[in-house]
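== Fold encoding ==
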Amino acid sequence: MKLSNEIVKWFNTNHNLAYSLISIFLGVALFARSLILLSNPATISELAGQNNLYWWYYYINIIHLIGGLLLTLGLLIRIAVFLQIPILVGAVFFIQMWQGLMTEEQSLVLVVLVLVILIVYSFFVSISLSLDNYFYKRKSALQSVAISKVSV
């Protein structure tokens, strides 16, 4: 019982770690999806269909690639999130909504889930495991050293 209480206490004090791990996973998933689609041009041709909007699908994949990498590294997280949100809103309302909920892939549910997570991250950014946190701490340390040298 004591061990379980300690585990719960540790999770309560380290909840930012969970947000960071979800962000890393989401970044890796977006990055991998983009790599898979970019490595198979036939899939992009199939997705573009009769509309021949190849440039649009390449644009989406490049944004997923860059945004996924930024989320994985924890660098410029809000910018990465804000790049992804319009694409996923478009996917929900213009593509997935017409396919419905009862498909084999359950794409609508997954897209909405990712969209909600990204909206949460646009408000509550966790930087415990990120390059942003590293650079922020380093900048603060350099500023404190500079202030202490000036005051001496």
Remarks:
- The chain has a mean pLDDT of 77.
- The radius of gyration is 20 Å.
